[in-house]
């Protein structure tokens, strides 16, 4: 494919958050009955998906996704074309876990080559403790989730693609339209909110603007990726760091003691082991 006409926006890097992963559910007569025709040995129904954070549309940069499933599954290479505001997804049933290759095809204006991600389908919660296992279950739904937050980076995008990427979010004044009307660079990153009906950029339910790099402030059911989650992770890392520092101190003190003891032994004195 020939690269798109036009120049690249130098020194500019644009990222877009997205989520990919799997959601699985064991068959159960009451909560998830096996549909007719599903083989006896299939134990779960599952979904693999790629979607925008907070379910925002990502079809303006992602055109198509190829999911390569396990060869034991009929027609195991599946292409899914974008439908605005809908996730790219495949629904299946089966009995085993395996790695899924997820190939992302970008819109032609981007001039980007396809890129592949790998995701392990999880049917069973795992972990060393019940609590860890429970973390893989989506609160009370019986679903086993394995979801990953990711950021797609576009380095020095072509000018036309830059317009596509940025022309929906946060118009800075009443004169710019959310689609196509914004001048290059105008208003991007501005904290100002759109005020009139014609300029109002669309927000998802969680308060995230379409065609932006925003992530939600707080978690909501089914939406675990947010600033809140990020803060909790940072807290966990800080606590772990303190613990590691304490362990290091203890070890250094121990080493010191042993070195001293060794020095005394070498000096040939009559020492007692401490
Ligand atoms: C395992 N290495 O042994 C894996 C292979 C294959 C899963 C898992 C078949 C579905 C179908 C299916 O679930 N394959 O027949 O449509 O665990």
From TrEMBL:
Organism ancestry: Eukaryota, Fungi, Dikarya, Ascomycota, Pezizomycotina
PROSITE patterns: YEATS
Coiled-coil regions, chain positions: 227-254
GO cellular component annotations of the record: chromatin; nucleus
Gene Ontology biological process terms in this record: regulation of DNA-templated transcription
Keywords: Coiled coil, Nucleus, Transcription, Transcription regulation
Xref: InterPro entries: YEAST_sf, YEATS, YEATS_dom
Segments for region (Disordered): 170-205
Keyword Heme: no
Name assigned to this protein: Protein AF-9 homolog
Subcellular compartments: Nucleus
Domain of life: Eukaryota
YEATS domain ranges (all copies): 8-168
Main location: nucleus
Gene3D superfamilies per the UniProt record, alphabetical: YEATS domain
Pfam families for this protein: YEATS
